[in-house]
Design a protein that fits this description.
The protein is built from 19 helices and 2 strands. It is mainly alpha-helical. It has a two-stranded antiparallel ribbon with strand order 1-2. Strand 1 and strand 2 form a beta hairpin.
């Protein structure tokens, strides 16, 4: 059998770095506005609900238009190359509109301002443009994550798949980490500069993906010479029902929804929460929150290597869910240093994804992976949309708290909500492990 590109360790790890940068840019833009909540409220007259409403539009197309599921099916039908270009282009357009929505030109009545001001009076033109940008970015971003996940599976199936997925995720989270570090510092130069910088990273990631497409084409050409295509490998619409009837897949999907609903919406609000609770500046609060991502960069590959070598994926998902619950309870009920619960969240945010994503590749056939990941991401976005909006709504509706004579929004009940979601996720993690004992997937077994 002729040697193909992915047989070369140097080549497949090089490809991993390339597509991981694309994912890292995605994560950077996703988190770029999180340290800017205070400045957006001051400059554009937003409140916590406005801020949460805008960011929740990221999840709208994937929740209510089922774009992750549709994108996953498109991926399985059209393939990695075309699907990736389509949805990363949506990311670019959404990023461009978000940048435009904070530009002086637009805020001073530029193109589209009067039109957006002519309807839906409860939303200002600024809020509408930023919401539209987040909607289009989210439409592309979630399916592009599915695409890149399938790329990693394609290049590493039969090799170091758990480690590769973990490193891919770790590099992506460097993007999220840098957003919390860089955005507040760029804001000190100009309040719109961090948004412009985030948008430029998305533009560059689109160019990089086009480079990847060339190598993907060459790999498929090589595989066409050494691998006979099997009719059974083709995707059929009926495969959607086969995926959702898999009990292990159901439990892992419900765990995915609850786990990420207790992490990402919290991350969107965490900078402001710590500013208020500990009376610290935005730069310091953002730096503290960024440590969640920094810890995952180190820990996720370690846990991925452990799963490849030793297994125990289902057990690690239970452990990650438990640590998640405890971290939120510490934030809500104690005055411990915020570094402690953030480090705990980092451990949970490393444990569970390092175990979850390769587990999906084990229980679902490769020709259905795009659909499976699409279903998971679509339902995950329902949680992100709903609980982010609910978190902001709760903080705005409950009585304010007074600290040093000043009034602030009270996020205590929002934190309790996140702890409760994490507890539900723990239940699904336990059910998954019990189901695995009955199945033949062997999630507790090593990958290698």
């Amino acid at each position: 059998m002729a040697k193909v590109y992915k047989d070369s360790a140097l080549f497949r790890w090089g490809i991993l770095l390339l597509v991981s940068f694309v994912l890292g840019a995605n994560y950077y833009f996703f988190d770029a506005l999180s340290p800017l909540q205070g400045i957006l409220e001051n400059k554009l007259g937003f409140g916590p609900k406005d801020y949460s409403d805008i960011l929740s539009f990221y999840s709208f197309p994937n929740t209510f238009l089922f774009m992750c599921i549709i994108g996953g099916i498109i991926l399985d039908k059209l393939g990695i190359r075309l699907t990736g270009i389509i949805f990363i282009s949506f990311m670019f357009i959404g990023a461009l509109l978000t940048v435009y929505g904070t530009s002086n030109y637009y805020l001073n009545g530029g193109l589209g301002y009067e039109f957006l001001n002519s309807f839906w009076s409860s939303y200002s033109p600024e809020k509408k443009m930023l919401s539209l940008g987040q909607l289009l970015f989210g439409l592309g971003a979630e399916t592009s994550i599915v695409v890149i996940t399938k790329i990693v599976v394609k290049w590493f199936q039969g090799y170091e798949i758990a480690l590769a997925l973990a490193i891919n995720l770790g590099i992506a989270r460097i993007g999220g980490y840098l957003a919390y570090i860089i955005s507040p510092r760029l804001e000190n130069i100009g309040w719109t500069l961090p948004i412009w910088f985030a948008g430029s990273l998305i533009a560059f990631s689109l160019l990089l993906y086009i480079v990847y497409v060339l190598y993907d084409y060459k790999l498929d050409k090589q595989l066409g010479e050494v691998k006979l295509l099997n009719k059974e490998d083709e995707f059929h619409l009926s495969d959607v029902f086969k995926v959702i009837k898999n009990r292990s897949f159901i439990f892992i999907t419900l765990l995915c929804v609850t786990f990420y609903s207790a992490v990402f919406p919290f991350m969107k609000l965490a900078v402001r929460i710590f500013e208020i609770k500990f009376q610290i500046e935005t730069t310091l609060s953002s730096s503290i929150v960024s440590n969640l991502y920094l810890s995952t960069v180190i820990l996720t590959p370690i846990f991925g290597w452990f799963i490849d070598k030793k297994g125990k994926a289902a057990t690690l998902m239970i452990l990650g869910s438990l640590v998640l619950c405890l971290s939120h309870l510490i934030i809500g009920f104690t005055s411990f240093s915020p570094y402690i619960p953030i480090l705990m969240l980092g451990i949970a945010f490393s444990l569970l994804p390092a175990a979850m994503w390769p587990a999906v590749a084990r229980i679902i056939d490769e020709n259905k992976l795009g659909t499976a990941y699409g279903i998971m991401f679509s339902l995950q976005n329902l949680g992100l949309w709903g609980f982010l909006k609910l978190g902001g709504y709760i903080a705005e509706k409950v009585p304010k708290i007074v600290i040093n004579g000043a009034q602030y929004h009270n996020y205590f009940y929002t934190i309790l909500m996140f702890a409760g979601i994490g507890l539900i996720g723990l239940f699904f993690a336990i059910r998954l492990k019990r189901e695995d004992k009955k199945s033949v997937y062997g999630l507790e077994n090593p990958s290698l």
